[in-house]
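task queued by scheduler; priority normal; single chain, no ligands, no partner chains; default sampling; output format set to structure tokens
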Amino acid sequence: MFLYGRKILYEAIESGRRIKRVFLKRNMKGMDEMIFMLDERNIRYNLVSDDVLLRLSGERKNQGVVFEIEDFEYSDLNDILELREKRDISIFLLDQIQDPHNLGAIIRSAVAFGLDFIVITKDRSAKITPAVVKVSAGTVFKIPVVMVVNLARALEKLKKNDITIFGTDTKGKSIVDVDLTGSIGVVFGNEGSGMRRLVREKCDEIITIPTSENVESLNVSVSAGIIGYEIYRQRNW
């Protein structure tokens, strides 16, 4: 997978991801500092032209940095259960979210508000791609992303481990009236059709964001940001 941008490279390095090779624009500003950092970490690099960077990244605004990493490694549901044994956790579960920009934005909000895991479905869902990494501003390297085949069954396992599952909809209990402390998971449905029936049935409670009547619903990534903030507020203030 080829990614680009200085901040995203720094995030990937800090997360411990193996960087296969870095491509730097010749004579770019800050090149010496970048080379020093890469040499310190024994990361291979090449000095190349703008044309090479464009061909590798598909993006002209690449900040003079393109790098290659292994394909994204997803975490396992057992990782969630192991952490749950040690402390309370919070999870965003995405029921067939298909827009890469929504996925990236949700990941960024999850990291900003201290969520522990993101769960996505194997089928009919956006995966971790360069576009998602870009929208997340590299924060995807700061949170484990779990991929499951059957979300409804995954919810059953989480509930058996005392994790309360909240589904989201335009009608439900207001998030300000719900206890979002303790171990919780929040499910966000598909952009067009919402949560699937079986997934909805596994939820312990349906919650909603209070809004005016001027709009019918919010974009799913906006909803995730607002609910993420409410989770953070309840746990820290």
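post-processing summary
- The chain has a mean pLDDT of 96.
- Residues 220-236 form the longest helix (17 residues).
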